[in-house]
Design a protein that fits this description.
- This protein has 3 helices and 8 strands; from the N terminus they run βαβαββαββββ.
- With 182 residues, it is an alpha/beta fold.
- The strands form 2 sheets. A 5-stranded parallel sheet has the order 3-2-4-5-6, sandwiched between helices. The protein has a 3-stranded antiparallel sheet with strand order 1-8-7.
Length: 182
């Protein structure tokens, strides 16, 4: 992939991640009866980092952690020209009556979140569901979905691609935007 324009560098990225974790701590206390679920694939990596940050700031947070694949819950999965490869869902607990924090890297059209909400119901009926995203592309929504916790908001043309890179999978933490002409 061609080199994109840098939106957020490593230092600001870490500050943003810390801010998001502090907002969750403020709202969830010790996280009793709460779970953090990352949406496969890149939302899981962000959720893992967020969980580590929360654990380093709290003595003993009490949340479950899960990884949710939404491949076959998407409204467009049958339109793909190539066979889809599902990631593994790892939710070894029920979400029944729990406060759920869904985590994804970029909120764009809202279709991924809609699929995640549908997939989540296979694990019970949550008490509440909140959405945390690192990037909100606020003018590109197809569905009436909004994030409860947002790292940054980016206004980008429809064809642009926003990528969140994390040091646990790439060389550094940063957010890039690629023009429509890739």
């Amino acid at each position: 992939m061609a080199r994109g324009r840098l939106i957020i560098k490593e230092e600001r990225f870490k500050i943003t991640l810390e801010r998001l974790s502090q907002q969750l701590i403020e709202n969830y206390g010790n996280f009793e009866n709460t779970c953090i679920i990352g949406i496969q694939e890149r939302g899981v990596f962000l959720a893992e980092r967020l969980s580590q940050t929360i654990k380093s700031n709290l003595k003993k947070p009490k949340f479950d952690f899960g990884k949710l694949d939404i491949t076959f819950y998407r409204d467009d999965f049958r339109t793909s020209q190539v066979p889809l490869q599902a990631s593994k869902t790892e939710v070894d607990f029920l979400v029944e009556n729990k406060k759920v924090i869904l985590v994804d890297d970029v909120l764009y059209t809202g279709r991924t979140v809609q699929a995640a909400m549908s997939a989540l119901l296979a694990f019970g009926r949550p008490k509440t569901v909140e959405l945390l995203v690192m990037v909100d592309r606020r003018f590109n929504r197809h569905l009436p979905i909004k994030a409860d916790y947002t790292g940054i908001r980016i206004d980008a043309v429809d064809d642009a691609y926003v990528r969140v890179e994390l040091e646990n999978i790439e060389e550094t933490d940063r957010i890039l935007i690629f023009s429509a002409k890739r």
